[in-house]
Amino acid sequence: MDFQFKDAYTISDLLEIMRILRAPDGCPWDRVQTHESIRGNFIEETYEVIEAIDKADYTLMREELGDVLMQVIFHSIMEEEAGRFTFDDVCDEVCKKLIVRHPHVFGNVDAETPEEVLRNWDAIKMQTKSQEQVADSVDDVAKSLPALMRAQKVQKRSAKSGMDFADAEAAAEKIPEELAELKAAMPSGDKDRLTEELGDLLFSVVNVARFIGVNAEEALTRATDKFSARFRRVEELAAERDIDMKTAPESLMDSLWEEIK
What's the whole-model pTM score? Predict the structure, then answer.
């Protein structure tokens, strides 16, 4: 296959490489992929960028951003083959969106603070998406988002209607109520009911996160990381003291947990 190797490549080269891979005489794996078959890859690559950001590993970030860009190109090339749109159309649309939603930069609208920018952004977004009610913008939140992230975004948008708790304390008061309802449902063993009650409890916790300015998704990630680190230390401590974690009394395990905290 005729392909010129270079010391440095550009976006044009990436487009051409993906077209070659998708060609009949290209890569057997790449040419049979569909939007659906590589959907999970897109999600994984995005989270790998997030991990690089969290680690402040900028060399890794460069690599992972390239993988995300490759996914964008991959999907665009599929649509180019189908005759629906091209990568240039994707670029054109996002450029137009950025210009329209930044009238304080590209127009004559005044916006001196980040808060004013966001208010203008939301208003323009509703207008360009023909959203007449707040409920329209709530429905527009992607259902494919992680549940905590989606819940917080739905709550933030719905609050713009004026229907919201007065403050964080008022939101927090809902948690014991939802917890009591979950406890009351537990003896039933009814999975549908338990799922509903647990969902209500989690939704209430996310409401509090929103009011106190904490990202619920990040908070749970940190809590999970903290648990993982502590669990490893407990396991090491148990091994040092010849304690069988599977048969040890709960009180002993609790004491080990408290010891390493």
Answer: 0.68
